[in-house]
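Hello Y.,

Per our agreement to keep a running log of every chain we model this quarter, I'm adding this entry. I've kept the format consistent with earlier entries: sequence first, then predicted structure.
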Amino acid sequence: MVITADPSQIWSDGVRDRRPSLTDELADGVARFVGESDLGAGDRLPPVRSLAERFGVAAPTMREALRRLEAEGVLVMRHGSGVYVSREAVRRVIGNPHASPADATTILELLETRLLLEPTAAELASSRATRDGRDAARSLLELAASQLDDPISLNRTNLGFHVAIGRLSGNTVLAQTIEALLAEHRCEQAEILVLYEDSTRDHLEHRALLDAILSGDAGAAHRTMFEHLVSVSEFVAERAPVVGDA
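Predicted structure for the entry above:
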């Protein structure tokens, strides 16, 4: 199925008026700091208190922003040691500053592309998932459960969850492709969440997906991811006119 649509139909009321929370703004600020500094993969960031002073916030607030970035795969927090730049941070932090706003055609093509990649990642993950990878995916689901009424934060966490599934595949190239795709199209992903509207259903499907992967059933893992992305694609397509099918 080839999905195209009139970009003017994709925007829902109030989308442009959504304002990021302080945690979102801090996370973006720290991400820019990492991207603009000389820090590389494995380098340690300044202490939390120093970062808090730099950004003019309390230490607990800064820790929350750092945890957000850890969930997104930008940072690694090591208890008793510090906060470090992750191996994938450069690709995730540095985006295209001249990217155009989300439009219907790009959103639907993004979902179509994800359908080509992510079911295979889920299938591979059913036999290759590591303990650390499984724990990371579970942690992201738990975080998402607390963010169902916070669309901006939930979008970040959901992106992290899909990236985590890519990593569980054990195929570095596939994982990096999924991660780069989602990082490049964060704006479109935010619109998908707004258009889909049913964050509870989305979360339950994510849980079912991880359960299928952890069961070790490759067919079920592939099918569950495929059906999840198809349901999202069909719902989004209904919100914008479908120009053609093939």
